[in-house]
Amino acid sequence: MEETRFLLGAKDLPKTWYNVLPDLPRPLDPPLNPATKQPIGPDALAALFPMALIEQEVSSKGEIPIPPEVLDIYALWRPTPLRRAIRLEQMLGTPAKIFYKDESVSPSGSHKLNTAVAQTFYNKQDGTKRITTETGAGQWGSALSIACKMFDITCRVYMVKVSYQQKPYRRSLMQVFGAEVIPSPSKLTKFGQQVLKEDPECTGSLGIAISEAMEDAVTSKNTRYSLGSVLNHVLLHQTVIGQEAKKQMELAGAYPDFIIGCVGGGSNYAGLALPFMRDKLKGGKKTRFIAVEPRACPSITKGRYAYDHGDTARMTPLLKQHTLGHVFIPPAIHAGGLRYHGMAGIISLLCAEKCMEAVAYHQSDVFKNAMLFAQAEGTIPAPETSHAIAAAIDIAKECKKTGEKKTILLNFSGHGYFDMGAYDSYLAGKLEDTECTQEEIEQALQCLPK
Ligand SMILES: Cc1ncc(COP(=O)(O)O)c(C=O)c1O
Question: Nearest residue CA, atom 14 of ligand 1?
Answer without folding.
Answer: 337
